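Could you show me just one protein sequence together with its fold in token form as a worked example?
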Amino acid sequence: VGAALDRAKADPGLKGFLVAMTKVSILVFAVIAALSKFGVQTASFVAVLGAAGFAIGFALQGSLSNFASGVMILVFRPFRVDDLIEAEGKLGTVADIGIFVTTINTLDNKKVIIPNGKLTSGVIVNLNANGLRRVDLMAGISYTDDIPKAMKILERILAENPRVLKDPEPTVAVFELGDSSVNFVVRPWVDPDDYWTVWFEVTQAMKMEFDAAGVTIPFPQRDVHMHQGA
């Protein structure tokens, strides 16, 4: 079994589990078969073994659920070690996939241990699975500013950033006419490892380039009128 799993390039955790279970199953079967050859009535023994297994399984149903979920994760591979995932309200890199629990390291370097049962019963977002990620940014300009001029500035910022991919082509477009600004979507595509770097670089560049070109970035303002009482 171990050799077959090696040829199939199975996950090491899954391999160890299947090899151990195969060994135990063969030993149990061999003992029961040997006892029956010596004339020992094994029917009652099998019944007792089954009842004991049921009782143990009922007592450990939570652990067995995590165990079954761990096998499912190792077989169907919704994520792998080093993938960036979001699950159970946690965002982080997968450090280890165990039979009972999965360990992830959050972006601020916290170690989070999640029972596998919760992972398979909830939503898992794998941020690395498709190979590329899109950065979704928003930029606003004043209604008195020139829209084509602002669009050219945004397109140039993306074109000059070496981490922004040329294919798929980034998107710069008017998204909405807001209460106090004309809002653009700025959506470059990047490699997963460059996601936050591009987010920070493009956000800073938009502010600096708009200031240099005299493009106004509106911000909420409030006028307060004071009336003198009699």
